[in-house]
Amino acid sequence: MRMNPISKLALVWLTLVGSVLVSYAELEFGHCERVVKEWADTSSSREEHPPNIDKRSLQDLLFFLHVPRTGGRTYFHCFLRKLYDNAEECPRSYDKLHFDPRKQKCKLLATHDDYSLMSKLPRERTSVMTIVRDPVARVLSTYEFSVEVAARFLVHPNLTSATRMSGRIRKNNVISTLDIWPWKYLVPWMREDLFARRDARKLKGVVIIEDDNPYDMEEMLMPLHKYLETPTAHDIIHNGATFQIAGLTNNSRLSEAHEVRHCVQKYRNLGEPVLQVAKRRLDSMLYVGLTEEHRESASLFANVVGSQVLSQLVTSNATAKTETTKSEASVTVSESGSDKSETQNGTSEVASNKIEAKSGNMTVKTLMEVYEGCITHLRKSQGTRRVNSLKRISPANFTRGTRTRVPNEVIQQIKSLNNLDVELYKYAKEIFVKEHELVSKKMVSTSKRSIADLQNVFGEMEGEKLWKFVSVALMLLLLFLLFLFVNARRRITSKVKI
What we know:
Layout: H1 5-45, E1 61-65, H2 72-83, E2 108-111, E3 126-132, H3 135-151, H4 159-171, H5 183-204, H6 224-228, H7 231-237, H8 240-246, H9 257-266, H10 271-283, E4 287-290, H11 294-319, H12 321-337, H13 339-345, H14 348-358, H15 364-390, H16 408-417, H17 419-460, H18 463-497
Parallel strand pairs: 1-2, 1-3, 3-4
């Protein structure tokens, strides 16, 4: 079959366009490959952990790299704020930083900022900690929290009113959720979607929602499966833990971060160098916790981080006893002066706990007890707020039970979109197991040493002294038995007389 001239020309044109597109795609991939490799090589060549410094030793500054929806708020309020004074926290920690931490004397920096912040910190004097969560649970929690916070604005008649109100809150210099990454992107986006769907329902009139799956209620909110495929989710949520620990979020301080992230998002096989950098950074951290291993993680934190903070307090008290006594007296007065207001706010325990820690009376055991009491109160208040928020989009509601309604294909979709986070989480679990075993062995060793010390004390006693000690103990025991015998006889006599 002979082709006419026009068909031949079209075929040649299509062939040329195809070859140009293939060449461009190859050039783009080659460029991305170089960009990612150069960034990874530069990150590897830098000292991730300064030499001659034990990573398990707490340095002057503790940088809590808070990956969103991992339970970090609980650690911040129920652990860190019990160990550090407000004056020891870096200013506006959870906001975009407006200061140079190297010029500050703060000891605690807790923020959603990514690892690129280390470029502004004194690396040799900084310890880093983080918490990692199963990627599926983290993505579901991110979706739920975006909806929950956005739903709070539905008390307003329209989106314009809600936007103005949030603007006024921020002008008053109050750090709200809208000031914090990534919620400053995710909440306004979800808020706009919720208002649009509410307006659509009003136009339809009465809308009956029969489906009880909150992850697929299109009349009320953006369905989960659509949420996962949006450009916003791809840029901020998916592989969020890996990008945050690698320092490559859209909030990064690295000029090349955005190009590297976009290259990895476009070409899946370029993610391996980024994953390796994130793994090495986990290796260099003082503490890596797991959201799913809640109790074990809390115990590990108390023994690894908490014990060192408390030890430093005891040391500082011993070296500056007089000044510390004066300081404690002034703290006690100021705390007791604000005691009434704190009781009204339900936070009076925080002040007393800080005084106990600062005076050196708190131990790892009491720290854990304080933590357990704190999380109960915190979870209750968070639960109440969540219920009140979700009432505005009823019947949509998120509980642990409702997550079982997420279809398996959506779960697999989340895992595929978060392939780097899946691998990073596996690696974090390996680190956690090793650290947990190390601390357990250390505790057993300490316990054995204490018993041995006690035995040595008795062993060092001279035979005569030891005999005197045993004789006194036996004498006291005989006197106690005699007392019980006499007391029993008196009771019997009194009964006979009656």
